[in-house]
Amino acid sequence: MKQLSHSVFYNGILNPAMRVFDVIMRTEYGTSYNSYVVKGSEKTAIIEAAHLRFAESYKEELEEALGEEKPSYLILNHTEPDHTGAVAKLADWFPEITVVCSQAASIYIKNITNMPDLNIRVVRDGDTISLGDKTLRFINAPFLHWPDSMFTWLEEERFLFSCDFLGAHYCEPGVMDTKIAYPDAYWDAMKYYYACIFGPFGPYVKNGLEKISGLDIAMVCPSHGPALTPGVQLERVIDYYKRQSAPKQSPMLIPLFYCTAYGNTKKIAEAVAEGIRNVFPKASVAAYNIIEHGMEELGRLLNASDAFLIGALTINRDAVPPIWQLLSHIDAVNIAKRPAALFGSFGWSGEAFPHVAGRLASLKCKVFDKQFKLNFVPSEKDLENAAAFGEEFARSL
Ligand code: FEO
After folding, report:
1. Are residues 29 and 88 in the same domain?
2. In terms of CB atoms within 10 Å, which of 76, 118, 212, 303 comes out highest?
């Protein structure tokens, strides 16, 4: 337990050993599940709970932070189970407690706790709860990063409890940005966290920043990573969010991703790319052999693209695993209507084409109705046709 101010106590869980979060995120600097106790003159609130796995140590931290106080409220800024897994237990420890959350969260939390009789108070944008001499005001923050997300503003202390927003999977015992011993590592973790968690929600990030722009913030208390303060990391992190969420002014980006067993699909990729460049000479058009690059790098490129192409290699009647791995990095929230096309050489059959096209269609990509495919080795004429295919796809954009 750490005291952050006269009325705010930190009772989060540190997990420095964590290396993978939610199956897909690497967490080389561990993480923390932040939770806070706010004590008013009349009532006490807990902000955020914890992962179920840490319920017992969370209880110890919580009891120490609470001291003699009994909590009246549990504020849930969103309901992802890394913060709400222990809510059912918490409701057992404090049967009188009222869970405070958004309308969407009120539905999710019943299904997470399987407690239909949980005391819930739904709050809307601008609603307040008084703790006596302290006031909690709630700020809707949809899709930052769940539909049910909100922020909680402690008016008198000027603390913003920002849910995952402005957070990081980063763990140091000091809890505050003033105590960070390895600032470069923190910055690396913060940027990666932004890319994974908030990258798909640029317009919502912009809205969230606008909503908090008028607040004279003394401290941001996120649900993961260090608390941020003015003059230390706060302005720098907010500026990073602003830059990352601003609309891009870069040239048109059309990457081609392929796998190739004997170099045939590689030749086709280069010819198709040449055709695209003929139509868009200023566009950024490049062909990437998937196995020669990091999957996260290629995933970011695909997600940032204006259109993309897949050179689909078939082995064992299916697309090869690197292609499926790349497609698993697609930001499904924002990929809808993205133009995509398929090309490549095949040996016996070529089942990768319908399988990959089906996957892209299910993600609601705008899949080009023509595919450029040929059997085995492309001739000079075939490569001319591949370039013509690239031109045709480019003109369809
Ligand atoms: Fe850290 Fe979205 O939960």
Report:
1. yes
2. 76
Assess whether the C-beta atom of 224 lies below 6 angstroms from ligand 1: yes
The answer, yes or no, to whether residue 254 has pLDDT greater than 90, is: yes
Instruction: Report the CATH number at residue 73.
Output: 3.60.15.10
Q: In the structure encoding, which two tokens stand for residue 294, read together? A: 């990091």
Cβ–ligand 1 contact at 43 (below 6 Å): no
Q: Could you report the per-residue pLDDT of 217-246, keeping only the tens digit for each?
A: 999 999 999 999 999 999 999 999 999 999
The b/e string for 305-340 (b: 16+ C-beta within 10 A; e otherwise) is bbbbbbbbbbeeeebbebbeebbebbbeeebeebbb
Return the pLDDT at 1: 78
Q: Is residue 249 predicted with pLDDT exceeding 90?
A: no
Residue ending a domain, choose from 245, 273, 304: 245
- State the distance from the centre of ligand 1 to the C-alpha of 163, rounded, in angstroms: 7
My answer on whether 308 and 353 are in the same domain is yes
User: Distance between CA 392 and CA 92 in Å, rounded?
Assistant: 64
Residues with Cβ within 8 Å of residue 167, at least 6 apart in sequence: 34, 193, 197, 222, 223, 224, 225
pLDDT tens profile 136-191: 999 999 999 999 999 999 999 999 999 999 999 999 999 999 999 999 999 999 99
The protein residue whose alpha carbon is closest to atom 2 in ligand 1 is 80
Whether 124 and 48 share a structural domain: yes
Q: Is 235 found in the same domain as 131?
A: yes
* The ligand 1 atom nearest the CA atom of 167: 1
Nearest atom of ligand 1 to the alpha carbon of 197: 2
Q: How confident is the model at residue 92 (pLDDT cuts 50, 70, 90)?
A: very high
Q: What is the spatial distance between Cα 102 and Cα 79, in angstroms, rounded to a whole number?
A: 10
Same domain, 227 and 306: no
One domain, residues 282 and 316: yes
Q: What is the pLDDT of residue 261?
A: 93
Cβ 80 under 6 angstroms from ligand 1: yes
How much is the pLDDT for 247?
83
297 three-state secondary structure: helix
Question: Are residue 261 and residue 140 in the same domain, yes or no?
Answer: no
Query: Where does the pLDDT of residue 24 fall: very low under 50, low under 70, confident under 90, or very high at 90 and above?
Result: confident
Helix, strand or coil, per DSSP, at residue 175: coil
User: Which domain range does residue 69 map to?
Assistant: 2-245
Angle, vertex CA 189, rays to CA 188 and CA 195, nearest 5: 95
The answer to whether residues 257 and 126 belong to one domain is no
